[in-house]
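Lab notes, practical 5.
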Amino acid sequence: MVMRVVREVLVLVGTTVLVFALLVLVVYGAFAQLEFAELIGVVPEFVFGFAGPGLALWAVLVALGATLLRRRGPWWRIGAHVLSAFIAGFANVAIVAAIGEAMDAQGGFVAALGLLGSALFVPLAMLATPIVVLLLDRGRPTPGETTSDPADAR
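Output from the prediction step:
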């Protein structure tokens, strides 16, 4: 049971971060017109800088939701994970703006980049969540379903 929760958290967050990084790579590549080496350096900076607080908060909320709802069906967990993505997206903008203001950076510009990070992260999390959770739960008995073979129960 514990391994299922850990696997769900790692695969869901890992998949979202990977697709997010690829999307940032494509968007920056199309609009910034940077050389490939510069582009590869900018992607982690954007993903973990301007969306990092939201991703970290979402990972914690996904772990909490997967743990608390481990005996529920997959749609309960999907709903909790999608709701937590919205919460993490809003918190990301506030955290990135606060960090920008504390560092005496251009707060409005930094907040806009935090908003862009959240605007890319939240829809990706919403799309990845049902796919990952349902694929990981494929072939598992639903809660309350009994198996007819005692060997399957072990």
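Observations recorded by the TA: The chain has a mean pLDDT of 86. The CA atoms of residues 74 and 133 lie 7 Å apart.
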